[in-house]
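About this split. The held-out portion is used to measure sequence recovery: a designer receives only the structure tokens and must propose an amino acid at every position. Recovery is the fraction of positions where the proposal matches the reference. Here is one held-out target exactly as it appears in the evaluation file.
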């Protein structure tokens, strides 16, 4: 299986990553767990699938609530895969996603509806490829749970839900599926999804509500809608950003750490003055 990482860091981002490691790992533990989950899925698929399959990772979707998916393109079609490190007992009833409350011994709606996220991302991929001059191809959403502690009770789920002990079987089954894409079609799809200007198109899709409009009509209506300019960052942050590129959340964390250290040092000095 070929792997294409679309999130190659440039020099500026590499400096920011090194500075982030020097200041302490600012990446949330949930993001680290999601990354490890993706790596586990990649390793399984890499060991089973041949070079007819291409796995794309690092495509930045506009939804901040969802992890970046893995996009598998191969002769059977396209799979939009969410790799999840979640553990617990879950129940999927069509588009509802519920988690077992251990204390109440009952199912409650989960904070993150993983099947719905996978379906939304598959629709986004479909819209990105809508004008591609190839035959119709299936796009299937799937959620792969890499933690053996995840147990799923599916009841007509809107996405394919695969537990840890079935991931290898799922990958092997793709080799037996009916062929839907030619080698030329696979190359065209991979080329389209790897385009540098894809983020701009994703941003337009993020502004387009998924209603009864066709994907292309939704994109066109989004282009006609005025956009709100982003808030300007303080000058001091703009100057520091020349050497390190952080998100607004990371700057807030750094600011909170700095203020906490100042207060701590002030308290230590005050205690020393009182004692002496």
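Reference sequence for scoring:
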């Amino acid at each position: 299986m070929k792997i294409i990482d679309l999130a190659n860091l440039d020099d500026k981002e590499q400096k920011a990553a090194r500075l982030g490691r020097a200041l302490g790992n600012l990446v949330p533990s949930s993001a680290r767990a999601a990354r490890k989950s993706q790596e586990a899925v990649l390793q399984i698929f890499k060991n089973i699938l041949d070079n007819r399959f291409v796995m794309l990772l690092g495509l930045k979707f506009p939804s901040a609530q969802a992890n970046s998916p893995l996009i598998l393109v191969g002769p059977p079609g396209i799979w939009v895969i969410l790799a999840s490190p979640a553990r617990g007992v879950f129940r999927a009833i069509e588009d509802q996603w519920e988690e077992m409350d251990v204390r109440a011994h009952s199912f409650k709606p989960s904070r993150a509806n993983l099947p719905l996220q996978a379906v939304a991302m598959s629709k986004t991929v479909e819209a990105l490829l809508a004008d591609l001059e190839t035959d119709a191809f299936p796009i299937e959403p799937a959620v792969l749970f890499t933690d053996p502690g995840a147990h799923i009770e599916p009841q007509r789920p809107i996405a394919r839900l695969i537990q840890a002990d079935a991931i290898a079987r799922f990958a092997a089954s793709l080799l037996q599926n009916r062929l839907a894409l030619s080698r030329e079609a696979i190359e065209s799809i991979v080329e389209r999804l790897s385009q540098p200007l894809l983020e701009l198109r994703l941003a337009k899709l993020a502004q387009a509500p998924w209603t009864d409009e066709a994907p292309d009509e939704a994109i066109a209506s989004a282009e006609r809608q005025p956009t709100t300019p982003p808030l300007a960052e303080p000058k001091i942050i703009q100057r520091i950003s020349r050497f390190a590129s952080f998100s607004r959340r990371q700057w807030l964390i750094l600011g909170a750490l700095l203020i906490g250290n100042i207060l701590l040092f002030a308290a230590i000095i005050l205690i020393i003055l009182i004692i002496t």
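Annotator remark: Residues 2-232 form one domain.
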